[in-house]
Write a structure and sequence with these properties.
This protein is 26% helix and 33% strand. The chain has helices at 15-32, 91-107, 121-125; strands at residues 5-9, 48-53, 59-66, 75-82, 112-117, 130-138, 141-148. The longest helix is centred in the first third of the chain and has 18 residues, at 15-32.
Length: 152
């Protein structure tokens, strides 16, 4: 399967797109993972949203990309989700590859930090991220802080 992504700032998103992005994230993070937390945290307004739609215009995968200084000192990628119907298709890897390509095009060769669920450490490792060694529970789920470092 081949998918084409779009990237939009919060101001560029249509109301329907923002609704569908939040609905997908709630479906995965809150309902599927049974993890009540504050999904709408104010950072979406400062973010770039990279997302994929299927052939009937449903949002099926998304990442939130934050400029330096909002979540971390580095650029951050977070809220990485793929709709359950599209897992195992390679879309998740395309999502991260396209997100990293966008970061490079928008911000240059910069380091990128993320908070990964521990069971996804290898997935992010396949995209050049390394554990910082900081492991913690977030909303009852084991997480690890990971960093993609550039060589300057």
């Amino acid at each position: 399967m081949t998918f084409v992504h779009q990237v939009k700032s919060f101001q560029e998103l249509s109301l329907e797109e923002f609704h569908d992005i939040i609905a997908l994230r709630i479906q995965i993070f809150i309902i599927e993972q049974n993890c009540p937390y504050q999904e709408v945290d104010g950072k979406d307004k400062l973010a770039y949203h990279l997302f994929f739609k299927n052939n009937i215009e449903e949002i099926i995968a998304v990442t939130r990309i934050l400029p330096k200084g909002i979540a971390y000192d580095e650029v951050a990628i977070g809220r990485v989700v793929v709709h359950e119907d599209y897992r195992g298709t390679g879309l998740g890897h395309q999502l991260m590859a396209d997100s990293m390509k966008f970061v490079k095009e928008k911000f240059g060769d910069v380091s990128v930090r993320l908070s990964a669920q521990k069971h996804l450490e290898n997935y992010y490792g396949n995209h050049g991220f390394q554990s910082t060694g900081k492991e913690y529970l977030e909303d009852g789920i084991p997480h690890v802080e990971m960093l993609y470092k550039t060589i300057n």
